[in-house]
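>> Question from a student workshop board

For tomorrow's exercise we were told to take the sequence and the ligand below, predict the bound structure, and bring the output to class. My setup keeps failing. Could a helper post the expected result so I can at least see what it should look like? The ligand is magnesium ion.
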Amino acid sequence: MDDKDLGADLAGVLIPEDRLQAKIRELAATVDADYDGRDLLLVGVLKGAVMVMADLARALHSPVSMDWMAVSSYGSGTKSSGVVRILKDLEADITDRHVLIVEDIIDSGLTLSWLVSNLQSRNPASLEICALLRKPEAVQTEIDVRYVGFDIPNEFVVGYGLDYDEKYRNLPFVGTLAPHVYGGRA
Ligand code: 5GP
Ligand code: MG
Ligand code: MG
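>> Workshop helper replied:
Here is what the output should look like for this input. Compare the format with yours to find the bug.
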């Protein structure tokens, strides 16, 4: 690996590509069974959920539409505050529709609980959450996450959509960053 190789910035692989893909297929089979052919609207939360959305959607047999939201949570450093601003709203009217929020990772759960109450106020027929990754703090919140890929340790991870400073999203696996990347400002 040369210095430009993304692998040089990584401390390790937490979830390899084959395990990610196997889990996505497993989640898709459960979603298919649960929705049983009903029209489903997948709502991906940009930008982190792009990879899981793309792979989950392709693994589903149910008829789905896809829409996207972009939100920013204000907070100091790596912690979100729960104060959320919509950067891009849905194009779809979700009234009376079956909606499944697709998220990359839940940490404090503040962003997601804001999103859930925002979307709930638009009166969907149903509203559920699918999150690829969940950290320990999120388990303690009241958010009911119907579909979870992996419960992971409380470490900062990148790859498969997840960034550090807008990089590493294109890794096909989930990994942890080498300390030198943080440059002492983690
Ligand atoms: P929450 O409001 O649940 O604390 O924050 C969720 C958002 O914070 C995620 O959608 C993601 O953008 C970011 N985030 C939380 N933990 C991680 C992590 O380990 N790695 C990366 N790259 N982003 C994270
Ligand atoms: Mg996210
Ligand atoms: Mg990010």
